[in-house]
């Protein structure tokens, strides 16, 4: 029975002692220890977060680089394509122009030839005409100098006329 | 037999009950730990707390025997 | 000795010793052998007014402790050595005209003109009164030793954190930190909750280490069973702390659950209220009894086993006795930590139930 009857004195001293212990340890031990642990854990957490963030940034950077590279590549591709097109176009243009020029020249030449031909023909005609006239004059002159001849001629001419 | 002896027998019976109770808790805790080793810590804590509750009842018996 | 007999003896000793400390030895206790196991055990388990270390040449070697009494005439103080190790009420100490005797570790104030104590049938003194005893007893003394040890350990640890690199605890701090973190992560946070545990951490840590160190001190034989945590006054005081902290931190929700349980019909509410109110007081009571009975039972078992040597008056029983008590002692070392842990966990649980919010009960 004695064993389980709490003695007033011991209860009193227990409460005093524990209260004192609680207050002193709270102020001088638990606060700094828990504070330090908390601080350290926060530090670790922050460091981990920072590392995560850095990694994410790295990834972003990498993705950016990739993108820029791709863009550059595409641009180059486009430029090359453009250049090729321009080249083709220029070539074909030049060809066309040359063709045109050639055709034009040919036509001009033909025209010139034609003209020349025509003028040559005309000259030839004139020549032939004058020559014929001369010949005719000479013939006529000769013919007319002889009366019989004259008559004969007229006769033939008339005969011709009749025939016509 | 004196009253003390009778009280002691009563306390003994209380202890048997608590022993069986704690045994049951231990058995189930072991089973659960074998099934799910990943939450072993949690199971251990709960098992200890439950054992403490069961034990308290037995201790009341022991204390009753101390009183008489 | 085969394993089975060993088991049988173990079982016998256990069941007898646990059931009643005195019972196991009472039957064997004959008057003529001069050794009363029950008396010896009770002497060790109970509080004392002097720090008895060892008996040498029939002379006790002990540290005297101050006795502080509150009588009708005010405070009376003197050293316990004035009783000259007498515990049978024959040595009378006279102070301020009052005469005191010590009988079975209780100090009585004798009535005028009486020299010997007399008791009635219920062990109440007939010719003396019991003054209020605020003595620095063995337990109080050990409590202070524990307190000083805790101050040394934890204030040194705290200093370690203040020094240069606070991210790496060194020395004693690196040993204590896992325990502190254990209390925080395994006890406070799961039981009280992430948001509110901070306020109660100092109490939980103090109570855990105070009980633990006291339990360990109780197991050291040279300190002669300074059974602090096995004293009901001590455990009651700590349980009272838990009780009042629970009371004062209890929120509206907690009181509602006690007096007017929500979610049940009205007759049930009326029926539940007294049960809850009783439960409110049973909680600290069970805390008190659990720690007290566990630690005291451990001490009693060890001492009973040791007493067997003197009861049987045989050297041959000594190895068995010592072997068993070593075994129990090892179990007790585990029990010291477990009981401190359980006291802390249950305190946290009670506090947690008092501070829980509406939605998570």
Describe this structure as you would to a colleague.
The complex is a heterotrimer of chains A (164), B (68) and C (361). Chain A is mainly alpha-helical and 164 residues long. Chain A has one domain (10-160). Chain A is built from 2 helices and no strands. The model of chain A has no long low-confidence stretch (mean pLDDT 87). With 68 residues, chain B is mainly α. Chain B is elongated. In chain C, strand 6 (98-103) and strand 7 form a beta hairpin. The longest helix of chain C has 47 residues, at 266-312. The interface between B and C is medium-sized, with 21 and 22 residues.
**CATH topology category name of chain B:** F1FO ATP Synthase
Oligomer: heterotrimer
- Uncertain parts of chain B: none
Measured distance between first and last alpha carbons of chain B: 14 Å
Helical fraction of chain B equals over 70%
Total number of helices of chain A = 2
| Helix-strand makeup class of chain B | mainly alpha
The tally of strands of chain B reads 0
Radius of gyration of chain B: 16 Å
Judging by the overall fold, what is the CATH architecture of chain B?
Up-down Bundle
Proportion in β-strands of chain B:
under 5%
Give the tally of β-strands of chain A: 0
CATH superfamily of chain B: F1F0 ATP synthase subunit C
Give the largest interface.
A-C, 35 and 53 residues
CATH class of chain B: Mainly Alpha
Global outline of chain A: rod-shaped
Low-confidence stretches of chain A: none
Family (chain B): Belongs to the ATPase C chain family.
GO molecular function (chain B): lipid binding; proton-transporting ATP synthase activity, rotational mechanism
Keywords (chain B): ATP synthesis, Cell membrane, CF(0), Hydrogen ion transport, Ion transport, Lipid-binding, Membrane, Transmembrane, Transmembrane helix, Transport
Domain V-ATPase proteolipid subunit C-like (chain B): 7-67
